[in-house]
Amino acid sequence: MKRALFVVAARRPARVEEALRAALGASLRGGAVTVWLAAARARTPLAHRALGVLQTFGHAVSEGGSRAALDEADAVEVWTEAGGEREAESDAHLEAEPDAHPEAESDAHLEAESDAGSERGTDAYLESDSGAHPEAGADAHPDSPSRNAAPASPADAEAAPPSPRLPTLHLLRGGARVPAALLGARDWLVTLGGAPRLHRHGAPPLPPGPLSFDELHRLVGLAARVVTW
Amino acid sequence: MKLGVVLARREDLELAQAMSAAARRAGDEVRWFVMDDGVEAVRAPAGAGESEGALDDEIELIACATSVDQRAVATAPGVQLGSQDDHAALLAWADRVVALT
Predict the structure, then answer these.
(1) Chain B residue closest to A8 (CA)?
(2) String of b and e for B51-76 (b: at least 16 CB within 10 Å)?
(3) Per-residue pLDDT tens for A140-150?
């Protein structure tokens, strides 16, 4: 049985309702659905009804989420605003756990690679993987030899069954951040908006720096799941 | 690998296309389910000047008929109309899901 996680971070009632309609839809083939509805989200009558139906059928609904629940998900849909309204809600998903997102930490893990050779700012996420970043400070050019020698060959990209032991690949659209509580020490981070860029966090199998979409696809196959924020 | 893409934001069309093209180059199967604002991205071309080449005809692409009807969208050739059951089917089928929602 597949497990789908829906993170409802949008603010507009119509968008919230669409997210919940999608969550209901995802349950139609017997899959387990979990909904995280960020606090103070619109509770229109339609949204109430959708949440009620989900709960009636044994699906989980909560405000905010946990890393453990993320690790159980085969697929994750983060519902943000659409049609250029993202800016207004860019922090919406962070409100679910207001104490878990110190501003400095959230930015630190994205900026770590610009400080080559230093792990400053990443201690909050990395357990004790000193030396686990063999590419630290390496030329981040996509065609560098180290990148070509990385173990993630197309054959490797044949998808392994999702597992909590595999990292989660977080894709960050413009300005988005991963809630600190949901970022595992081994997870990989790629910022989008223009060329994808792989960050050092989680000791990824490719050197940090610009990624081609072919390389990004390899990471998709190697990760347990993909979460687009 | 079987890659499922859920597209619910028109502004993510290029990203969906780029990730799908990479998957296809790797020999992977790709299917899309499109709903809500995402159906605006699979509109039929409005005129001769608008490219029809944006959607890969090797990719199975199903758009939520409810969203299409709500927005009175005429979909591009090759786009099938479906329901949330197709959304569930996509999630069940895919090895990995990229949700652009």
Answers:
(1) B101
(2) eeeebeeebbbbbbbbbbeeeebebb
(3) 333 333 444 44
